[in-house]
Amino acid sequence: MELQPELQIPHLISKQERWSLINDPLADDPVAALKRDRELLQEVAAGTRSATARIWENPQCLVVTRRETRFPQFTAACEQLKSEAWPVLVRESGGTCVPHQPGIIHFTLFYPQSSVRSPSLDDTYIALCEPIRRAIASFGIEAHYGETEGSYCDGDFNLNINGLKVTGTAQRIVGAPKNEYGIKSAVMAQAMIVVDADAVAGTDWVNRFYKLAGNGRRFKPEVATSVKAQLDGTDRILQQSGITDFTLLFRQRLAEAFVELAQQD
Q1: Nearest Cα to 104, choosing from 32, 30, 38, 172?
Q2: Residue 1 located in a structural domain
Q3: What are the pLDDT digits (tens) for 182-197?
Q4: What is the pTM of this model?
Q5: CA geometry: angle at 53 spanning 229 and 34, to 5°?
Q6: How far apart are CA 115 and CA 56, in angstroms?
């Protein structure tokens, strides 16, 4: 999709009075890592935390929506996939089943809303995706917004490199409890970035969940990729950076891109 000129810069980020940035290491417990997003959303809604960005990463698992827990063979699918080292977890936001594993980075924005004229869904997605797009651009490759036909968790605000998907997104809004700050609600916007993981195999595992759970949905593995797979000269880039792991380097570039946007006037 082509963005209008006035939407090119994510003003939503720079308009917040104060942001905090959490850069969590690879989690030991994926359940706790998912729960932490919910906790941060509630803290922002209650006014006990300012607008927050979080970079995080999970060990290997599949994460599904609550709707998908109603599939006819869901319990049996979970038992089988757990035996294959792909435990199934449930998240609060919508979409489809997605893989989590080392090399897949998650980037979440949380911010309060206090007025009737709140940012649009598109504004929020642009604020979420622009730091990611800039981090990718720092390696000399360009990512574009748009749907990726045949991909899991598809939407207008995927990020694609050479027509292949590297990022999917979702949003959730919750009402705020009574508070002294005038906060009416809080937004959680989530992105999943395949940085250095086998995107084709990840889609295969998503399809396996649907098959085992008794659902006919299937996605095309060939439409997914990783940032690293689209990059030439990775060894040279790592050597120049002094960082030996590409996922760690991408985390650094993403954090830098977000901080730069947050400091814009």
Answers
A1: 30
A2: no
A3: 999 999 999 999 999 9
A4: 0.93
A5: 75
A6: 30
